Structures
1.
Amino acid sequence: MLILRTEPLFPARGTILAVFAVTFCAVLNPVHSGFAYEEIPNFAGGDLEGSVFMKGTLHSPRRYNLVLSADPYYCGRISDGKGWRLSPITRPGPNHSLPGAVVYLENVPRGKAAPSTPAMVQTKDCMFLPHVGTAKAGQDLHFQNWDPVEHKLEIFLTSATGGLHLFGQTLPPHPDNRKSDFLSEGKTGTHRAGTKVTYAVEKTGIILFRCSYHEFMEGWGIVLPHPYVTQAGKRGEFSITDIPPGTYNLVIWHPMGQTITSIHILPGRTLNVDVDVSSTSTTAYPEDTHKPDPFGIDLVGDAHIVPTVELQEWDAPSEIMR
């Protein structure tokens, strides 16, 4: 078994480029494109198995003042109880594993057939679900709003020069959804899906979903021209099958950190690799020191923003013990 502690995918921990200074940052894009992928029927090759873990410094999530966003009471049902919403938190799994990390190979020119079924992304409780996902170029992404509030979907392709706007459209709520059913004491609201909005994926790379009404809503997708991609499970485990023999760059991507390393696949053999996502790798989250905000929670009056769905807490130690 190989245990790889790789060099960071990008030069330095803070190498991120702001697309909008206050809303989100674009990370450099490691996905290479510019070639066509050839599908070969009944293709068989070598296999890759392993796990992803992360030791060292954990980057704290960004905090957003709910007073400055739309629908603070409804979206604040997930918050810290003090009027702040945290960007989606990924908790380390057993043995420092990194669940949900995207694992893929770069520049695979031919191999097994790729699935072409549409993928679904939901907005629910002012979140994109899933928070991190994958897609194939040519695949459709369906978006549905399950909230009783309107969202404005924006999709950007990250790059070294900033974000390229790919798509923008309103995600309407279901007409029978009512905020009062979720906020009134003693009532339990029912999430119903609004009208489906479809985005046809064309460009490969790292894409960012965001809602222009609620800046704390973000989701990430890795778009590839081939099917040699997966996501780490709850214990950081992953598996990719039927890989054409050869040498490849193995990329681990997650908003918390990214790494790249070289591997060699042999025909009919299984390579087992455990990858340490170095703490020096680039993060999608900028350094964010929580400071008092001049626009305090008192601006909403006597009412309180109550985290009835999730009380967000960030109490992870600054260093994960080895």
2.
Amino acid sequence: MYSFGVMKGKLLETRYLKSLISVVDCGSIADAARIEYVTAAAIGQRVQALERELGFALLTRTGYTAMPTEACLSLLPRMRRLVSDASLLQYDTDLDGLSGTLRIGAISTVLTGMLPRVLKELTSKAPNARPTIVPGSSLSLFESLQAGKLDAAVVVAPPFPLPKTLRASTLRREPLVLITDKTKRGSAAELMATHPYIRYDPNVWGGRYPASFLADKKLEPTVLCDLDALEAIAMLVADGLGIGLVPEWTGIERFTNECRVRPIPGSRYEREIVLLTRIPEDRPNLLALLAQVLDNHTT
């Protein structure tokens, strides 16, 4: 149990802050209690103790939901930092800096592609490290990293300039490919005009690359459905439900054995995969090792 600061003559405990943050992230006291492995009453008491010490409300409760007040939202970044700093105290005497939990966000194709080999090498080189893997979309992982919920994220490169608090390292570029079942023949334009298109969702960061290709070629295929799961697109194509335009991600061959895969020329259609980290980094040695291991497995 750690404590911080002195307010009104009392020490506030970081576990109280952690409980409040859980409520904010979960949207309810009951859900936060399940994550914290305590009772809802205990969570409520911790929040009330913080409110008494600070002198203002931190949550507004409506039915089963609990929402942060404006005052709570303004304090949230500092509270996350305090909780994070407290959790790192036990590793400050770690001579090589390769111990402890490392929270890594990863998109689905990274999870099924390069990450298993990366984790094997990482834990071999840093046996006292404890990687925690968080799946999600590029946008959700970007937001979690910004909020301090992650130490690193392997995502599609953001389609906007990074804030000064984050840095990006390019891991690989994935060329666009057209996938069809093995019975289909013809050019990309012919196939797009005559077969349903299983579309990589253009509203997600990676989906902008095939959308750019279609716009440049003035192709308007009939969309069967939108998906952000590339593995699912490949499986639907293999079953003969349509055709797809996807990046050639690491491990794509496991999902396209029953498909014909044709390259789409043009570097502007390549999906860029990056490692995002915060500035400054809480675990610089572990993150440097993670970057090195990722680089070993991105070819």
3.
Amino acid sequence: MSSESKAYQEKSINQVKLDIGRVAASLVEPHDYIVMDTGTTLSAMASYLTSPLTVVTNAVECLITLSQVQGIDLHFIGGHFNSFHRAMLGTTAIGQLSQYRLNKAFIGVCALSEYGVSTTSEEEASMKKAMVEQAQLVVLVCDSSKFGQQHLFKVCDLEKVDIIVTNQYPPSPISDIIESNDIHLIVTNQSTES
């Protein structure tokens, strides 16, 4: 179990997160309808996105970045502003999200273990869960420091995930679950990317 949690402003966007963000952005196709979660790796991803594209997000940093890209149809989810996560969270935001049908969800990861994806905040877990439910394809963006971590509030089991973009191969038993569920694992520090 890990209780370590930093506010968005205390985190930095390093080269690892930029690489993960770039590869995650390459999974977006023209005219996709995507939802983007909050987090520094998602903020990195936003900087690589191009139009034509429709993006739904609750993340302030994604909103700021994507509002400067011409041709992106941008939808910002309202509700309660959570300054720790720099995102809109709560029942209003979840209710608004339920009005959209999205083909891809890009989810930031606080903790990933054999028990699934989890986070320190019930409000954030509920929002991530709603994003997973609204999308046809679920992509986790996750640096390797999140592997083997577990927090109190569950987001989803790994069975709900289609793709994981990360910078290192996860340890067993996480890798076993990924393999047994046919989750596509993309590791950015490899010389060839798939």
4.
Amino acid sequence: MPDPNAGPAVADDLLARVAEGRVSDPHAVLGQHGFDLPGEAGPHTVIRARRPLADSVEAVLDDGRHVRLHHLGHGIWAGSGDFGPTGYRLLARYADGGEWLSDDPYRFAPTIGELDLHLIQEGRHEELWNALGAHHREHWGLGGQVSGTAFTVWAPRARAVRVVGDFNRWDGQGHAMRSMGGSGVWELFVPGLEPGATYKFELLTRRGDWIMKADPMARQAEVSPATASVVSESHHEWADAEWMSRRATTNLHERPMSIYELHLGSWRPGRGYRDVADELIEYVQWLGYTHVEFMPLAEHPFGGSWGYQVTGYYAATSRFGTPDDLRYLIDRLHQADIGVIMDWVPGHFPKDDWALARFDGEALYEHPDPRRGEQKDWGTYVFDYGNPRVRNFLVANALFWLEEFHVDGLRVDAVASMLYLDYSRNEGEWAPNIHGGREHLEAIGFLQEATATAYKRSPGIVMIAEESTSWPGVTGPTSTGGLGFGYKWNMGWMHDTLQYMAKDPMYRAHHHHDLTFSFLYAFSEHFILPISHDEVVHGKGSLVRKMPGDHWQQLANTRAYLAYMWAHPGKQLLFMGQEFGQLSEWSEERGLDWWILGQPSHHQLAEFVGALNRTYRDLPSLWQLDDDSDGFEWVEGGAAAENVIAFLRYDRERTPLLCIVNFAGMPHEGFRLGLPAAGRWTEVLNSDAVEYGGSGVGNLGAVEATDVPWAGRPASATFTLPPLGAVWFRYTP
């Protein structure tokens, strides 16, 4: 018979499922509930709680009264009285004499609101990280504010979800979450749970299996190889207001941009986010770069993936410290006037069974059809870009890094793999789109939404595509069907020019088109010229080792190539180590060969990169009209036999800068070029200067052009071109 003091009866099978945390709405049974008592007026409330193994349980009300709870079965206790809704604590006594007073998660209202749920269901929550995940907060219970952690997770096909962690000895039966209806969101507030706690979600699949998953929205994770999520709270106080204000009004297309790409784990092995700040800032300032680009810093389980197989999209990797430690590093870089770009990987994710893969027991984040949902090259899953909730997860993630970490740009990895349904697939391994084509329409829509939303919410940032095909309009506006990126990596330029540079100078005449072809399309997109990590691994050798000749010639080739690269229309990116001529190819398992900087010729190469960057920044002709054909003019593009190219760059005031590169192994004396005007042309950069390790061949500081027409131009001058060297000249009327 039911105990009359325990309130309305509850079916035994329901009690059993509640006790095991196998229900979708545990709050419907547990917690406090009003009820009518026949024949009696006034409020009546029943309190039910799960306290297995207890000898007795009482509810201690906020007014000091104690309500005795009676055991209903399966560890569920209940007691009722003529009190209205109130705050309370649970006092449980055990056979060993132990006595525990604790709060009850099931007395609290949901911590997520109807608007949030609506936006999540529609796939339109631009601040998704503020709605889902684990959030330490003050929650208003009936008795006042209570500190604790609110957990929310999207798992639409789960039959039940529990929170497990170090705080409940990884037994989630007492922390079952409630379903928030058609949104697919589950919620639970755990009072008293503080930052630093580790946790996961335990999900009951439709097949009846329990699976344990890290939080997709976790702000922090355990240090790999541990895989739990960590309740995290930021206390960082930003000091980069001046930078952020300036960023919001800056058009990067009309500003200098040279990027130092680095893998944080192998730049200075053993250094964390905070430890590396001073040295990185000093080094980047010495080299004169405007930006650093970090290879992915989102949490990833396998270091050998370099961060490109992400499991924690909202968590800065704990390998190098806490999220606030990363905020500190970015803040310091901004205060030093250095921009920060981060690699972002929405193209795929690994199959680790504790992460996103088959999150609620079935394909959720990934497309269910393996012809669209798997990337066999990398052994990973591919996101279901057509699912609005999945797309929302990714778009909000881009905004998260831009807004919460003040990142100035995202370089999107492997865009080509998203654009084409048949990317790296054989016939029969891919399914065409609704029009029968190979274009991945849903992924295109996602990229357009991501770029448009990022630029709308964070003016002054930059979205960069690593796109290796001739897809039209990568940097075109979304309003005209473009993908909306600010820049695209110019992979064609990289491939052609490195192929040219690998040739012995005596054979380069036959490959002159590799040097000049990129100028035909240089203004078809907004380009970044990348010599990235991908070009110095897997047997490709370092940049210096790609060059022919003896050691002096390799370094001279490198200096000339970099000067040509910096003068070419587009922004520049160089991977760490190449600035001082690292000889061995890069490996994430060890640090850079910093000892080489102690060798005079290599230190001189680094000094040259510094001079290159500073000269570049001082000359608007090299960047003010970077994306406009009016900012470029050929002077000599056909001197294949001499291995020479020469061109002019202009700023908005039509101030010309003459760039000449001699890729021959011998100097050219008296090399005449037609020029737009007579006057003094001052040598502002010479890659063959003695201070950079060169032979010192040059033009004694300046060349006087006269009114002698040449090659269709009204003036001309003769130049001394150093061997394997580049010279830049600024015009003075």
